[in-house]
TrEMBL record:
Protein name: Gamma-glutamylputrescine synthetase
The species this protein was found in: Photobacterium ganghwense
GO molecular function: glutamine synthetase activity
PROSITE patterns documented for this protein: GLNA_ATP (PS00181), GS_CATALYTIC (PS51987)
Family to which the UniProt record says this protein belongs: Belongs to the glutamine synthetase family.
Length: 447
């Protein structure tokens, strides 16, 4: 681990004001968990950090989901979590740095197949051995919102700091909105540069107080997902400094656009040539085979791409969210969009997931279709905008049933699919047993 010790030395030379380091471990929802240590204890991390294996299966509320079988049933055993090289970075707090951890198996010798980042790494290793090198770019949407909730507990739109009123007007790609939030965006951009985040700018999205941050294309898929974890954390930190709250909920407002997390993907060979294009510039057989594999996988992958009950509220006609397992060129209403491009950057934009998705899960699902592509022929790819396209499951219970019947276990590991299904079924059950204000209003005096 001499490389990691050199990383520490170089980091502290660049950021000598660092006093503490957040050791960040992401659970099944990609929520950052972990502990804060003094910076002088950082060198000890080279030997690993013990954390309960049940940390993987924490709910959105932060409780261990016992149904996954990693908690009390096992006696809450620790597994060793190792530092991920290249992830020691500053945060929005000048005195605090951060470092990502990855979990090992019970022997402490191999990466745990329960931890989705390790699963993604194995998918990448398999593709690389086959001479296929995925290139991805991520897009992340979010809302700045008021720190004070509405009386009914729901979120309120952000208070525009320039117009001195709450947001209410929808204006897609509104440049003036960027000016209104210039101080927040400037601080966010500065902090992103300090972290060396591979971002290409922010823009106003299609709802009041909604923004999108785009990441540049990269063939370092793991780093792209790591950076999205840090970007979400950074956006929250900077938003709080400007007296905003922020949400990555898929559908925080019933009558406004949801938050998406789109991923663009192409595949190149060892020389950087795009395998989705033939030498004459036309789409290659692999391109159509990958599309066919992706479309086939959509029904069984929805539960992975839409991890929460709120995720399914995002799907609706007329809101630029897909409702069918289809594809199309230069069309934002489909599940798989082929953006305008030449042969060298031909790519597929996967548009299903909301901003609440775990980025490692998202990348694993998308790249598993490249693994599966040889099992399909180009002729199995349906025509674009097919009227016979299957509907996307829009209820969490239906999506979980599809996941259990699907074949993702052979790509994402059966161990991970098992704990994921158990966790999400538990969360769904808890949600469905809650009594909501709406049903009380409807039924109190009419039932």
């Amino acid at each position: 681990m001499d490389t990691f010790e050199s990383e520490i030395k170089n980091f502290l030379q660049k950021w000598p004001e660092t006093e503490f380091v957040d050791l960040v471990f992401t659970d099944i929802n990609a929520t950052p968990r972990g502990k804060r240590i003094p910076v002088n204890a950082l060198k000890k991390v080279v030997n690993g950090v013990p954390l309960p294996v049940s940390t993987i299966t924490l709910s959105n509320a932060g409780s261990v989901i016992e149904e996954a079988g990693l908690g009390e049933a096992l006696g809450e055993p620790d597994h060793i979590c190792m530092p991920i090289p290249g992830t020691l970075t500053p945060t929005a707090n000048p005195s605090v740095a951060q470092l990502l951890l990855s979990m090992m198996d019970s022997s402490g010798e191999k990466p745990s197949r329960l931890f989705i980042r390790n699963v993604l790494e194995q998918i990448l290793d398999t593709l690389h051995k086959d001479g296929k090198y995925p290139v991805i770019a991520l897009e992340l949407e979010f809302y700045l919102v008021d720190k004070k909730r509405a009386e009914n507990g729901l979120v309120r739109p952000a208070h525009n700091p320039t117009k001195n009123r709450q947001e209410k007007d929808t204006a897609v790609y509104d440049i003036d909105s960027l000016d209104d939030y210039a101080a927040f965006l400037s601080d966010l951009n500065t902090a992103a540069q300090k972290q060396d985040l591979n971002t290409s700018g922010a823009l106003s999205e299609s709802a009041p107080g909604q923004f999108e941050i785009n990441f540049n294309h990269t063939d370092d898929v793991l780093k792209a997902c790591d950076q999205l974890i840090f970007a979400k954390r950074l956006i929250r930190q900077v938003a709080h400094q400007h007296n905003f709250d922020v949400t990555f909920m898929a559908k925080p407002f019933a009558h406004e656009a949801g938050n998406g997390q789109h991923i663009h993907m192409s595949v190149v060979d060892e020389h950087g040539e795009n395998l989705f294009s033939n030498s004459n510039g036309d789409a290659s057989p692999l391109f159509y085979q990958t599309l066919a594999a992706m479309i086939h996988a959509i029904p069984s992958s929805i539960a992975l791409l839409c991890p929460n009950v709120n995720s399914y509220r995002r799907f609706s006609l007329g809101s630029y969210t897909p409702t069918k397992a289809d594809w199309g060129e230069n069309h934002r209403g489909v599940a798989l969009r082929i953006p305008m491009s030449d042969s060298s950057n031909r790519r597929i934009e996967h548009r299903i997931a909301g901003a609440d998705v775990n980025p490692y899960v998202l990348a694993s699902v998308v790249l598993s279709s490249v693994l599966a592509a040889p099992h399909f022929t180009p002729e199995q790819c349906p025509p674009p905008l097919s009227k016979n396209a299957a509907s996307i499951p829009t209820r969490m219970s239906d999506a979980l049933a599809e996941l259990e019947q699907g074949e993702f276990g052979q790509y994402l590991s059966e161990e991970f699919i098992h704990i994921y299904s158990a966790c999400k079924q538990s969360e769904l059950t808890e949600f469905e047993t809650a009594v909501t204000p709406l049903e009380v209003e409807w039924m109190l005096h009419t039932a």
